[in-house]
Amino acid sequence: MEARLPDPTDALTGVELFAGLEPEARERVLAAAVPRTYRKGQLLFVENDPGESLIVLKRGAVAVFRTAPTGERAVLHVARPPGVIGEIALLDGAARSASAEAIEDCVALALSRGAFLELVHANPRILDPVLRALGGYIRRLTEQNADHVFLDLPGRVAKTLVRLAGETPATMVTIELNQSQLAEMAGGSRQSVNQAIGSFANRGWLRTEGRRIVLTDILSLRRRAGMPDR
């Protein structure tokens, strides 16, 4: 579904991948990109699809996940603006290594692989942020593997909640996420995750409001996850 962005001249603001481009090059990116909207619950792409485009997220949130043969899903990370999705498939031309689903209504830009490669050839400096993005992706996977070895499930739930809260200085954060999605992110059953959430609620660290989770004591959640105090 195509949609008009409210201010196309500002569409790449904050996107690290394009931060070093000259204004003329940014204009070429915008001219080649196609505005997209995705409804909550809509798939942006599916594992093993052709890696044909890079997606720049401008509004909303997207869960990137793998699916097991049994149908169970494991969420690798949640992307929020001004993040990009699909950069790995663009570089090697291979099929998508994961699926992506909008967990909120989203507005994005889609840049084809051909247009992206032309941009790289004309502006080699763009490879620096691409390599940083790949490095961050590898670090996330390494940390997730370590979490499954060193953290129990409540610790992984606490860490997932802290990550979803982001770097906000607010003492109370509301997360739009149901417990099935949280279970996919933490790598546990819904029942076990519900028990962890109930335990945290009893301690006053959070409360649930329907499909929302309100974090009321992020510091305690950080400590339960083994993360350093900020």
From TrEMBL:
Keywords: DNA-binding, Transcription, Transcription regulation. CDD domains: CAP_ED (cd00038). It holds the Pfam family cNMP_binding. Residues 151-219 form the HTH crp-type domain. SUPFAM superfamilies: cAMP-binding domain-like, Winged helix' DNA-binding domain. GO terms for cellular component: cytosol. Residues 17-120 form the Cyclic nucleotide-binding domain. The keyword Transcription applies. One of its GO terms (molecular function) is DNA-binding transcription factor activity. The keyword Transcription regulation applies. This is CRP-like cAMP-binding protein. It comes from Longispora fulva.
